[in-house]
Every structure is written in C-alpha cells, then in structure tokens.
Write the structure tokens for this entry.
Amino acid sequence: MRDRRRFFLLWAVVLGAGGIAVATLGRYGVHVLAFGLLYAALATSWSCMRAAGLFSFGQAAFFGVGALTQAWLVAAGRVSPWLALCASAAAGALAAVPLIPGLRLSPSSFGLATLAYAIFLKGLAGNAPAFGMEGFLLPKTPGFDGPAAPVVVMLAVLVLALGLGYEAFLGRPSGRAAAALRQSPETTLSLGIGLVAARWRPLALSAATTAVAGALYAHLVGSVETTVVFSSTFSVVPLVLGMLGGALNPLGGLVGTLALYPLDELLFRPALPQAHTLAYGLALCGLLLFRPEGLLGARTPRIPAFAALRRIPHGSCALAVRGLTVRRNGTAVLRDVSFAVEPGQILRVLGPNGAGKTSLLLAIAGRLPAARGAVLLGGTPSPRGAAARARRGLGRTFQAPRPFPEWTVRENVALAAERGGAPGEVERLLQELDLSALSDRPAGQLSVGEGKRLELARVLALEPSLLLLDEPLAGLSPVAAERVSSVIERKRREGAAVVWVEHGPAAGDLASQLLVLEGGQIRFLGSPGDWEATREAPS
Amino acid sequence: MVLQAVASGLALGVVYAGIGAGFSLIMATGRLMNLAHGEFVLVGGYILFVLCHGIGWPWPAALALTILGGALLGAALPPLVRRLPRREVDGLALTLGVAFVLQNLLLLGASATYRVIPGGTWPQTIALGPVTLSRVTLVAAGAAAAVLVGLDLWLHVSWTGLGLRAVSQSPSAAAGLGISPARMEWVAFLAGGAIAAGAGGLVLLTRFLSPGEGPAWTLVALAVVFLGGRPRAGALVAAGVVLGVAESLATVLVGGGWREIVASGCVLLWLLLPGRTVLADA
C-alpha cells in the first residue's frame, strides 16, 4: 500500500513538474521534460540489471545500438519509425547476447566486461562503412520530429512500463531467483538456480529498453553521431541516477532523475556548457561515500509461504565417485579417490586440515572440475555445474552459513521449499530444528549456531536425495547437535544418501561407512568398526 | 610494411607495459581496479604539455614535476576508497566517478582540442636495419623500460617493496608481521599515480592528447594486466608488446581506428572465455 501511494505521488510530481516546465519555458520546457524522461528510462533500465546482482558500466553499448539502428533504418532505409523502434529493441537485446557468458562473473568483472563492450562496439560502429563517424541526419517525420508531444508521451510510457515491469518481475519466481542471486550466488546455485538462467532476462530487458531509449533519443535530437551515442555519458548518467534514487527499487531511476537532472539542466548546463556532466561524476563519488544505498531503500521481493510450485522430481540417488582427481592452482588436492554411497547410507568423511574433505564435497557438488575420474549420480554421469546437480537431487550445506541475509528465516526455507515442491515442510522443519521462534528474523542477524540450523532446514526443504554436509555440528551446543543429528538420521531413514564431513564423534555413531582422507588420498574406507580395529591394532 | 608495423608495435608495447604497471600496483596492493587510470595518464600528459610547450621547461624537469603531480593525484584516492563498504564493486564505481570528474575538468581547462608536442627535434628518425623508428618513440620506450626495471627491482629488493608484496598477498598476515597495510596501500596509490602520470608524459611524445581518451587508456592498462597475468616487469612487457604489435598490425592491415577495438577485444575475450567463473562477491 505504501509503495502504491509512493508510486502515485511520484508520478503526480513528475506530471506537475513537467507541466510547470512546459507552461513556463515553452518549447525548451518540452525539451527538458523529454530529456528528463529519457534519463529516467535509462536509469530504470540500468536498475533492472542491478536487481539480478549485475553491475553495468557500459549501457552506452545498448543505447548506441538502439540509436544507430533507428537512425540507419529511418534515414537510410526509409523504414517507418514505428517498425524501426521494434527493430531497435530487438537489436538491443541481440547486442546483449555476446555478454551472456559474462553472466557467470562477479558484478565487478561483469561491469568491466560491459565497459569494454561499449568501447568495442563504438570502435566497430565507427569503422563500419554503413555507419562511419559522420552519422545520420534523420528526415522530418510527423510525430517523431524533435522534442514534440508524441515522443515525450512515448518516453513517459517507456518509464512507466519499465517501473511496472520491474515491480512485476520482483513478484515472479524469476524475480525471486534474481534477488537470491544478488544476495548469495553460491547458495542460489545450491538451490538449483543457474546463474545464466536467473540473469539473462534482466540483461535482455535492460538492453532492449535502453536501445528503445536510444532510438527515441535519435528522434529527439534529429541526428545521430557514433562518437556521441556510444560515449561514456550514456553509461555514467544512468548509473548515477539509478544509484542516486536507489538501484534496488523500481522507482529509483525516476527519483534519481527528479533529484539531479533539474539541477544539471537549470544550474550546471548554463554555468558549464562544455562540462556540465561534471555534476554526475561528483554526485556518483558523493553518493558512494555518504549514501551508497541511494534515496530509496531496496525493494526485496518477499517469499510467499506457499509459493507457486516448481517441483523438481527426483527419486532415490546413489552416489558413486570413480578415480576422482582434482587440481587447484596446479596442485592435486584429491588423487584417485573412489567410493560409493547407497540410498539410506551415511558416509562420514574424516581427515586432518588440508586432507581434501571440502574439495571432495565441492567436486561432488560441481563447484570444482575433475581433472580425472567421474562422479555418478544414480548410476549415470552427473551433469556439469552446481545448479544442474542440485536439480538432480543434490543438496549441500556450507561450512560457514551462507543464508540470504535480506530474507527472514522462514523465507529462506520457503524459497528452497518452492524449488523442492514441499511447501508443507517449511513449518515442520522450522519446528524440528528449533527455528520457529526465529522465523521472522532476517537471516543476516543469526548467530553461527542458528545459521547452521538454518542451513540444514534450507537444504532439507529442497527434498534432496543426496545430502552433502560440511561440518553441520561445528559450533553447536550439545542439545542443538543432538537435534540436528536426529534430523539427519530421519532423512537417512527416508532413503537419502548422505556424505557427512565432521570432526566430532556424533557423525561416527550414525555412519554406515568411514572415509579417511590424508594428503588428498584415501587412507581408509570401510565400516566404523573396522576403522576402530585398525586403530587399536598394535603397529 | 608488416615488419615496420611490428617494430612500431614493439616500441609502443613497452610504453603500454609502463601504463599497465601503475594499474597493476594499485590493483595488487590497493585491491582496487582504478577506472580513472586513463585519466591519470591524461593528466600527466597535460601537465607535461603545459610545462614543456606553455612555459618552456626542459623535458626532464617537466617530467619530474609531472610524476610528482601524478603521485599527489594517486594519494588522494586511499581516503576515499577506505570509506567504501564493498571495495571491489563500489571501488570501480567510485573510480569511474573520479574519471568522469577528471574528464570534465580537463575539458574545462584544456578544451576538446587535440594536443601534440609540435616540431623541433622530435620528428627525427633512426633507421634500424629494414625499419625506421622515430627517435621520440625510442626515447619513450627506453624510459618506460627503465621505469619497469626500476619498479621490479624496488618491489623485489627494498623493504618497502617487500611490504607491498606482502600486503598484496594477505593484508592480515602482513599486519601480523608489523607491516601496516594502510601505509603500504598509500604507497601503492602514490607510486601507481606517479607511474601513470609519467607514462602520460611518454604518451604525449608519441601520440596526441584529448580529454575523451581516458577510457581507452584505462582499457590498455586493463588489457596489459589481464594478458600479463603477473605483476612482474617481464610479464607486463610481454603483454604490452602483444597488444602494441596487434594494434599496429590491425592499423596497417585493416585500417585506422582499430586501437580501441584491439584493447577492448582483449579485455572482453579474457573475461568472457570459459573458465573465468568469478563468484567473489554479490
């Protein structure tokens, strides 16, 4: 309700300010309004990408593609501006395709890729005979002629559609997946949500809408020059305005534009006509130093208790590891490791620090590539990548808890239950792991012990058939450890195969098999009784 | 013609390695990719231009003051960077903001006009077998090579260099040994800024200056550091030479205007090729 009121209030301010600008400044007022809306569209487009944990320093790439496509089609091809607008949007989305491999990168590395991409496309367009450095002069077309009412209305519709689309996206499973990825990429992968799958929609949407804004800019200005439309201004301005308003809020771009653009237009441009964008550079520095979250707070999508189900069916799943060798930075951390765990069995993994226990879990989970050997799930080769293996029924906990910090304890478990198709399990798991009293607390505020219990609740809500547990009892009180052990034992009785790395004795009591690693190699593999006998035997 | 292009690229590549060296130092010890590095290079170029061309100072004296100016510019960054909660991604945005501010200030102070060092003794050429190189290009390459060797020695022989390398590997472990990470970070920014500005002076000898060229120089630095892989003089020179030769060959074989395409293409390929999965932060 509060968001809706804010939405209407903000648009009332935009329309009021626009009306005053047009009434007092005439044609120049229309120009100011048009460019304000253009910048708001660019900033909101930029924020859409930020919602998925991506950071773009090169929106000029898509802006330039849109502007050039529109100008080329309208000026050289004599195509209808309406048709050209559709083509520009498609060209913008297509221009994002080469960046898809970059969706696996961290936000900063992806940001660098976009920065390089904008400069790369600027060079390509400048050297292309069809575009060149001379650019295009657009012919006069009714409705598309300069800062006239139709173009202004189209820009307003674009800003409105972007804001509403962003809001709708946050409410959908894909929006929740994107928000999860932004908070904790590793945990998101462990829920079976792939990086590319969760991020390509925001990227494509942002690229296409930025290209449409570029196309409308071409009509606003009446001409397009390659060096101008690919310039860093169209990368930095959306970023500054988006961050200023609040990048993680659908209204952020509009608020940021309202806060800074009038100052630029009315103060800086008259005073420093050549260097008025100095205001954006100063604003960006000041913002990062004093209010990095922007004027509006983040709009994190809530996870409904009974979300629309996306059940991932998986039956029982035996694990077989055959001749597994794993290298990290050129050094073999696991050498020729082979074992099998059947459904309903617990394999406890022991070994001193550096023995390769965590590397083994990472390799089984698909986070470390095998140099040699294979990991078989249910008798067949496991798919590549952590998300794909999670979708095959593999669930894993982390040694140090990695919850989604902006969501409550219940929401953390509910998101996993949404993926696992077991919404009825949420309350049961919270109760079983003594988390009911904490269920409305943000997960980022939990202690280590509470976080460990949440780790287990989240992974069990996925309904996995193979569990990888990395020291789930470390740091827990004896009572909590007992509770966690009994939940794991229940899961084993229900038919899950469990690989359990733990230093304490509790796991040993429940284990069907022991695997002792030393220096990345198997020292012992057998029953706990045989291991005890080996240790007690005189050497 | 190809041989001539390769020779020019070799000389140019050593200057590129010098530009990458400052970036690499700040990245390793300051844990920051400075997107204003290209603007630092330009500021150096403009200071040298004003001192040499405007006031008439001799080149070596002007270069010394240019390096000092760059050091001061670099030293201004650590107090800002330390306030950032997430240095990796916010640091990039902050330095992008600094780059934008510097770009606009250069536009205000120097206008968009291209600046070159005119005439005099500079255009003289030297024939080296089948290829001919301008004396000024050789001077720039020689100066860059000297700086790189000096930097490598400083990093591997002096106590300060040892401290810089220790902090680049593990600030907490270095602090445990009594090395102040904050002080080393400050030294890295100072030295990185000085090297960038000095390189700007060398750039001015071989090319033109324009306020909008900053991002292109930042990309050159990024490409050199990514291709080099290690912050050692040899690796940086090898990467710079590969980039310089590729640019020269592209210019000769395909046409002018390909400089930015080659550098940005290298950065893109390095980031987007399979196996570069980086999930360091969110």
User: Anything to note?
Assistant: The first strand of chain B starts at residue 125 and ends at 128. Residues 277-282 of chain B have pLDDT under 50 and may be disordered. Chain B touches chain A through 53 residues (CB under 8 Å). Residues 2-30 of chain B form the longest helix (29 residues).
